[in-house]
What does this fold into?
Amino acid sequence: MSKMTRRSFLEQTLLTAAAGLAAAGSVPFVEGDATPAPASPGRGSANERVGIAVIGLHNRGLTHIESFVSDESVDIVALCDVDEDLFAKAQQLLKDHGRDPAKQYQDIRKLLEDKDVDAVSIATPNHWHTLAGIWAMQAGKDVYVEKPVSHNVSEGRRLEQARLKYGRVCQAGTQSRSNRAVREAIQFIADGKIGKVLLSRALCYKRRDSIGHFDDSTAPASVDYDIWQGPAPVRPFNQNRFLYNWHWNWTYGNGDLGNQGIHQMDVARWALGDLTLPTSALSIGGRFGYVDDGETPNTQLAFYDFGGPQMLFEVRGLKTKPLNGVMVGNIVYGTEGMVAFGFNTNVIHLDKNGKLVSKFKGGDMNHFSNFTSAVRSGKQADLRAPVLEGHYSSALCHLGNISYRLGSPETFEAVSKSLADIEPMTESLKRFEKHLEDNALQLKDLHCQSGPALAFDPKAENFFGGNATANAMLTREYRAPFVVPAEL
It folds into this structure.
């Protein structure tokens, strides 16, 4: 792993950022939460109505419905969820917007036989994202797939292969790509206005309470639990592995790095010029402050080396203060200044002394309408968040988690020594430790999961050195018939 040059310069840059951003005020960020495809037969005109099916109706899926019904040229013709009890609320939402009732499907395979469905919008748990997208494209449907687009690294590549093979349009649900202020700031960085970028930092300081403990039980009668499990191995039903809390279980989710964090990961990578994947990844952390059924870390640092530019991600689920005014967002440090990313218009430029220079103004450009416009044109290049970009950003989350999961418990003193040559991690670890102490946790009583620095081949998309254990975690064993193809 390469050592960042001009260490003293970067240290000073981080310090001036602290003063400048604090003076500029809070920059909160909350979840709103490109190769052209071959032309496909049957594409309509720009004015033709698009028939959409929404797959997954719990919380985020309802937001999909709200977004699509704002477009009078879009019809929501079908709804799909494994829980039949969720249909009533979704149908009422359609009625409230003056729309006709939609057909209802509990089994996605039946839905995909529906000829009225031109495109699907996928808001399922993460472990279903890729398979649902591939099956839909095989059935001749265009696809909007929520973030992360995959549950593991290999799946994202399979989605892109399916898009190319079947000539469909596939959009990733990273909505910041459709935010004017963010887009303007990214271009500002690309134009060299903050000099050479040294570090792209992403933050997910989002409070997460303990999920407690629940014994295994029986799935609700309204739920087809076999379909819900899909590609994952069979396990007994547990309410802490269902609904939202599946995020904190490795079988179905990817922790906050792959939940809220994928939005900030995407912006962090975008700010580096849309680089693809790193030459190495390293992560440390733990689930501190409570004991519950969750498996994923609530406090985590993930570091990525791109052979020059570097990226650092911070996750905090316990009570915390913002970093220089930012709770959930990004800070990009350059030799001549920095840019802090928030939500909507909260994107600012500071000079290298930390003084506020300007604010980027803009607003939402409607990510969902961008998708339906591309469905009509049949051109992947019309999308602001093509699935290939979604794959790269999602893969960064997975790589960090792989390092974390392959780590071993170490004292904080040992972790500090192991990170001594990586200045951004050293600086972040000090704040990490202070954060735990602020939550009344004694470092001497804790162990930190310390992951290895994993050398990665960004072209082959696997780990160097014949690391069989790490490479096995780039994919998973799939449960028939819910199998993501190894090749397409």
Remarks:
- Residues 1-9, 25-42 have pLDDT under 50 and may be disordered.
- The radius of gyration is 22 Å.
